[in-house]
Design brief:
single chain, 202 residues, mainly alpha, Arc Repressor Mutant, subunit A, 10 helices, 74% helix
Length: 202
């Protein structure tokens, strides 16, 4: 047997009995690896099973459909983003510049941590009504979190249009940075500037 197959840390190592939670974690890691290396279009349940060294029914049991798999990937990304922001906000100063920096930095860092795969997953979410609805639901929750953090420092109520503008800027600039089209420092500055500008509007 090759050392590759004997490596217990290998996410694609076959025939090892895992708990349902551990198997789900393994499948998610392999799915991210596929998206990272081959793009979202390559991610099918059958291919995921092949790469993970499991049978197709195992993958179907965890995700049901490709839509379910893409939803799981996006929700994992979203949960990570919320966790990072919550932690950073608790440790930050209580001022508009401090909060704006936390939002800009954590949003950008989360996208960068996912590499180039996140834009592809995000684009795929717009490909069906179910995925689009999930994306809108999660984006609304993120906007609400940002609005609650920024409103104490705003000169007037920050409405839905302002929050959409902020998120649109953050997403576009972060995805461009992940693709290597923008310098990270420049990207963070633009997101920060958009947040502060929206909060300070009169």
């Amino acid at each position: 047997m090759s050392s590759h197959l004997m490596n217990p840390a290998d996410p694609a190592a076959p025939k090892k009995r895992l708990s349902k939670e551990d198997r789900n974690r393994q499948l998610m890691e392999v799915a991210w690896s596929i998206v990272r290396g081959e793009g979202t279009d390559a991610l099918t349940l059958g291919y995921l099973a092949e790469r993970a060294g499991v049978t197709k029914p195992v993958v179907y049991d965890h995700f049901g459909t490709r839509t379910g798999l893409l939803s799981a990937l996006y929700e994992e990304y979203d949960n990570r983003q919320h966790a990072l922001m919550d932690e950073a906000l608790q440790a930050s100063g209580k001022s508009l510049p401090a909060v704006a920096k936390v939002i800009a930095t954590t949003y950008l860092n989360c996208v960068m941590a996912m590499g180039r795969e996140m834009p592809g997953v995000s684009a795929a979410l717009a490909g069906s009504p179910e995925l689009d609805a999930l994306k809108k639901k999660l984006e609304a929750a993120f906007q609400a979190k940002c609005q609650a953090a920024l409103q104490p420092f705003a000169k007037q109520p920050i409405g839905p249009a302002g929050m959409r503008a902020m998120l649109g800027t953050a997403q576009a600039v972060s995805f461009a940075a992940a693709a290597g089209e923008l310098d990270l420092a420049d990207a963070e500055h633009e997101i920060y500037d958009a947040i502060v500008r929206i909060a300070r509007r009169t």
